[in-house]
Write a structure and sequence with these properties.
This protein is α+β, with helices and mostly antiparallel strands. The protein folds into three domains: 160 residues, Beta-Lactamase (2-Layer Sandwich), CATH 3.30.450; 87 residues, Helix Hairpins; 147 residues, 2-Layer Sandwich (Heat Shock Protein 90). The chain has eleven helices and twelve strands. The strands form three sheets. Strands 2-1-5-4-3 form a five-stranded antiparallel sheet. The radius of gyration is 52 Å and the shape is rod-shaped.
């Protein structure tokens, strides 16, 4: 199922919230209007009830009781829809306005004489008409006569019709308001998300050839982190594409040289008839180029595995001083040829793959010997650091490396001097990249410093478990 858009979600949320508020508001308004009409009716009923009770209190003799209905009828003149009933002992009707309809329960009950009315009016239906009424006890001025019940009712049909029309218009207005708020919510969500659409249009223009473009920072605060993160991603991608482009160019250059040598030697060999020894000499020369290509391909496969986390070194105790001394013995002839002395100091052991560690150290030593001036010394220092880690440093004197080159020394095929062609004694420019991959595969770190005529490779390893 396709996820709903943010505009739809915001519109739905806004519409739902506003609908709930409008519905509750509609119910409250209806209830308040209904309560208002009930209070108006109750005030009118209470007033007429007190009027009837006052007239009853003025009755002193049975003869006055006989003329009471006439007085009450005069009092009801001009009050349409108002009904009054006076019931004596034994439910004997003493007075009742024409057409008056009262429920039996209202007339039979006897509220306390001091009570002015029921707490809430009684509502009933009769012949399709609605009524609201109250009842209370009332005393006459005749001595010894029991209190009578006075009931007053008002026809509420006009109120019901008004409320019916009022509710229809109210809910129609609420429905229109809900539709309007949904539309306004959609418009607000669309306008609020306009910066996101602007960023989308900008990102759609970015391609591999325009990775130097950046998103503007003049966006709402909620999108600043997104724009910053996207710009950082573009910077990383730009760097990765640049390195990939450089790598492809350097790879083509590195492969072109041996392939060109092979083609040239083969063409020369085929240009004329030669003896078996001459052909054998050409094949030996070609074999050297093939070996260079094989080493280069093997190194590239190693780096490809490292990039994909496929290098899983074994874990065995590796005595670093012993490995360094064995490498010193291997490079002794090369060091003597360059007039360089080799020194190792310190002690330490780490868990790891011994052959991989030796390969990393060999690359560092080979690089240091080649760049150390005659009479200089390559020093390997192994130390236990305060953090509980093992440090291994390879130092050699020589010309300082410019700071702008230091971050890229571990890139593949990268050379400080691009114009410098690979000599037969040098590698293909993959040694330091391989060294970094091996160190990182052992959960270590490597960094380089080059100041005051001294270049220093500093490796930090986790200490071996004891």
């Amino acid at each position: 199922m396709r996820p709903k858009s943010i505009t739809f979600r915001l519109t739905l949320f806004f519409s739902t919230a506003s609908t709930a508020v409008l519905i509750v508001t509609g119910y409250l308004i209806g209830a308040l209007v209904e309560a208002h009409f009930e209070q108006l009716d109750l005030d009118e009923l209470s007033g007429k009830l007190e009027l009837v009770r006052y007239n009853l209190a003025e009755v002193r003799t049975p003869a006055a009781m006989e003329v009471l209905p006439e007085k009450l009828s005069d009092a009801m003149v001009g009050h349409h829809g108002l009904s009054v009933a006076v019931v004596g002992t034994g439910s004997k009707p003493l007075f009742e306005t024409p057409g008056a309809v009262f429920p039996a329960a209202l007339l039979k009950s006897r509220p306390p004489e001091e009570s002015s009315a029921r707490e809430r009016p009684v509502v009933w239906q009769q012949d399709g008409q609605g009524y609201r009424g109250i009842a209370a006890a009332a005393s006459t001025g005749i001595a010894g006569q029991a209190p009578v019940i006075v009931a007053v009712a008002v026809n509420t049909e006009h109120h019901r019709l008004f409320m019916q029309a009022f509710h229809q218009r109210l809910w129609l207005a609420i429905a229109a308001s809900i539709a309007l708020t949904a539309l306004l919510g959609w418009i607000a969500a669309r306008r609020g998300l306009a910066p996101v659409r602007d960023l989308t249009r900008l990102t759609q223009r970015i391609s591999a050839s325009s990775l130097d473009e950046r998103l503007p920072q003049s966006v709402p605060p909620e999108l600043i982190d997104l724009a910053t993160a996207f710009n950082d991603m573009l910077a990383r991608l730009e760097g990765s594409f640049r390195r990939l482009s450089d790598f492809s160019s350097d790879l083509a250059h590195e492969l072109r040289t041996p392939v060109s040598n092979l083609m040239t030697q083969t063409q020369v060999a085929l240009s004329q008839t030669r003896s078996a020894d001459q052909y054998r000499e050409v094949l030996y020369s070609n074999l050297e180029e093939y070996e260079r290509l094989a080493r280069m391909i093997a190194d590239m496969l190693f780096l490809a595995k490292a990039d994909n986390g496929l290098i899983v070194p074994s874990s065995e105790p590796v005595d670093l001083p012993a490995e360094v001394r064995d490498l010193f013995a291997f490079y002794e002839a090369l060091a003597e040829e360059h007039g360089v002395s080799l020194v190792v100091a310190g002690a330490g052991s780490i868990p790891g793959d011994r052959l991989m560690i030796r390969r990393a150290l060999s690359n560092l030593l080979s690089n240091a010997i080649r760049h150390t001036p005659r009479g200089g010394s390559v020093t390997v220092l192994i130390e236990q650091r305060a953090s509980g880690e093992i440090g291994l440093c390879v130092e050699n004197p020589g010309e300082d490396i410019a700071p702008e080159h230091l971050p890229r020394l571990f890139d593949r095929f990268y050379r400080v001097d691009p114009s410098r062609h690979k000599a037969s004694s040098e590698g293909a420019g993959l040694g330091l990249a391989i060294t970094k991959s091996i160190v990182e595969a052992h959960k270590g770190t490597i960094r380089i410093e080059s100041t005051n005529g001294l270049t220093r490779f500093d490796i930090t390893f986790t200490e071996a478990d004891t």
